[in-house]
């Protein structure tokens, strides 16, 4: 009988990796009792979590962030030919083969070029029209012109953030028309600080791997500032791009204009000498006099042909500039109102929940430790 009872008892025992429902209930009751005994610890954890969350809420920047974007397409110049233009566009977005192009306007080079310091600094120092912008002082429409960088200082919040303790920078403004090469140490410091901030707020990405569309995006605390910055930024990139792409043609145009003007001056003096010579020697039939007149006439014809050729070259170079100019086509312009992202204070609620969870975990670990020590 004892053997049969022992076998029956072994059959009702559970494997070591399983827990019976009775054991689960017993452990739950023990945890409840431990929770009641340690309620002070739980309350302390909740209060600490709430205090930490409250402190985070106090330091949270509650200003809304306005996100603006502009989608555009960069077309090549018509002077390159059909396949050349398509090849440049394809290589720009990594769809072509061969070695990487050293051109700054292709591939990842163009992405870096758009947010580089020379481009951003040129855009910041660009003069803009602030007509219709509401000022924080009188909330009235103003009609004046100012630098983009001064407008950014006034509306971006940099004076309350990075320059909060810099009284000199808070009251500083840039002067219109001043060459950046002549900037003082204070002006360079202010420009570097604004560049570091605005570069983090501006991004350029490819809309899709299979498309040539690019999206210029920014996020700022002022709605009108965000929209204005993207417009000025794209305009600056287009100007700088055009200047660099047509630099050689501009040099040739300057040279041909100087040649045209020089030939025009020489031709004018030669024609004046010819007219004066004819007036003074109308009755002379000496061969030497006729030879001089023929020489002046021949020089006039030769200079005229050179002058007309120079004028035609200038016209051709002007047409070449138009052909070489890249085409920036705006696919999706900036549209108001912008997307607004509010920053609500949720840290205190999250801190209370986290404090509760940590308190429960601490009590559970304490109960487990006590059970192990007793056994």
From TrEMBL:
Residue spans crossing the bilayer: 39-56, 346-365
Lineage of producing organism: Bacteria, Pseudomonadati, Bacteroidota, Cytophagia, Cytophagales
Entry keyword set: Membrane, Transmembrane, Transmembrane helix
GO cellular component: plasma membrane
Nucleotide-binding keyword on record: no
Record-level Gene Ontology MF annotations: protein tyrosine kinase activity
Protein name listed in UniProt: Lipopolysaccharide biosynthesis protein
Source domain of life: Bacteria
